[in-house]
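Known limitations

Structure tokens in this collection are predictions and should be treated as such. Users comparing against experimental data should check residue numbering before alignment. To illustrate the layout, the record for Proclotting enzyme is reproduced below. The input appears on top and the generated tokens appear beneath it.
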Amino acid sequence: MNSNLLLLCCLKTIYYSLQESPSCGRPYGGPGPKIVGGYDVGYYKYPWYAALILEGEVFCGGSLITTKTVITAAHCFKPFISLVINNDSFKLEDVFIVFLGINNVCRYEDDVRKFRTQKVYIHDDYIDNIPYNDIALAVLHRDASTFTPVCLPTPNHVGGLDLKEGFVEGFGAIFYSGPDSCTLKEARVLIYSDYSCKKMIENTGNDPDYVKKAFCAGYLSGGIDTCQGDSGGPLLVVGKHGEYVLEGIVSFGFGCAEKDLLGVYTNLSEFLPWIRAKLKTENVRQENFIETTTLGDVKNMRRRRRKMKRRKRKRFQIMYYY
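Generated tokens:
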């Protein structure tokens, strides 16, 4: 009798755990073997990773957030916006082919699926010469139901992102101005406080407001970072049920993995109303908004924020990672 009760309790625990656990953000397989300073992801670990292909090469990354929608950086379309303005027959939807299920761009892979885009949404307030609102959506021409979308955050984070560990993925250069990687790579990065991020931007001679709706990640000691070719790709944080949540989009940086410099990522939680509105326009189901847990003592980090004294410094040039 006691053993039957124990079995029933275990079954109930498993049932309720499955009920609470989201279907999005589930990686395939285990971690790969140990971007700049990164390591190979391992075959098909992140089914939501999207490669934006231009003339046979990876131009930018992206993430599948619904079975028909890929999210990426607006600046990935920056070189082509003037063509749209000056040529009525040219459309942003014609720029990229989206590859899903890709792990190695240097060889043929049976599981890769190719998609055209039927609609591109660039944020209404994006200005191509200023790194604000660096976010875009690409609606696929058909459903990608065999691929698991990544989870999106909810706006009510428990304390925000400060001190969290994140994961970045991409096919970008393995060192500054170096060759792109054949295989999808990932790296662990630390998400820095808003104060540290703005201070870093100020030290480069740029406007700290560049990170008003963004955050910084990497290591001030250098060695690990995103680089050219990683633009638009994901920064992921592990949620409370083990699912991967898309918290950031690779936006810009200053060199790659340089000491005292960090990568800058569009903060997804700042753009949830915009994302929801565009998905509603396309009649796309919205079920992947997941709340993540918080690591670290965020309140203490926020107390350290203070008014920054501006000094004249040599200005570092912002570098987009396409």
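For this record: The first strand starts at residue 39 and ends at 40. Residues 2-20 form the longest helix (19 residues). Please report discrepancies through the issue tracker.
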